[in-house]
Amino acid sequence: MSYPFGSLTSLMKSRLINSVLIFPSSSDWMWSIILFLTFLLIGIPFGFRLGFLRMEVVKVSWKTLIRIILITLILPATLEEVFFRVFLLPHKVEQASLITKCFWGSISLMLFVVYHPLNATFFAQNARAVFSSFPFLTLATILGIVCTVSYFQSGSIYPPIMLHWAFVLGWLLIFGGYRKLHYEASGFD
User: Fold this and answer.
1) Three-class DSSP category at 174
2) Which of 25, 34, 35, 58 has the greatest CB tally within 10 Å of its CB?
3) pTM for the full model?
4) Closest Cα partner for 160 from 112, 114, 119?
5) pLDDT tens digits for the chain (189 residues)?
6) Cβ of 120: how many Cβ atoms within 10 Å?
7) How far apart are CA 83 and CA 4, in angstroms?
């Protein structure tokens, strides 16, 4: 007897293995850098215009800084990219059509964006206002597109993880995200 979850599990396992074993080429990394710079050219002016971003280099201890760097590599960068890119998108070796990629890319993107306010509602309530705001959701949408294109281009999990991680670190450490999540959201601004 065949179980549908068995084949789904097998597909997820295959996608994960393929995405981890494929190391991006130099042109894949170059595409990722171009995508990231494009994201910055759009996202930074947008974020400043709406008052969501502000230049503010975070002042924390070295221990806290290292903790932020390591934790954000795991969640959101690695775990979200594995779920929203690797598990939901067809891998390069599957040779999916452009229509199939666009369909699953759209589903993945919608879930990625909706996940953030839901996550804040159920698990990080102090971040609910931030993660539900129009500027944050717009930037998350752009980030989701950039990570999806990077994943489709490379077939590797590493570029989207690095893009996601760089964005989150930049927001937390340079553009006021740490204050938004730890002080403003708590009412201690």
Assistant:
1) coil
2) 35
3) 0.92
4) 112
5) 344 556 989 999 999 999 999 999 999 999 999 999 999 999 999 999 999 999 999 999 999 999 999 999 999 999 999 999 999 999 999 999 999 999 999 999 999 999 999 999 998 888 899 999 999 999 999 999 999 999 999 999 999 999 999 999 999 999 999 999 887 655 444
6) 20
7) 19
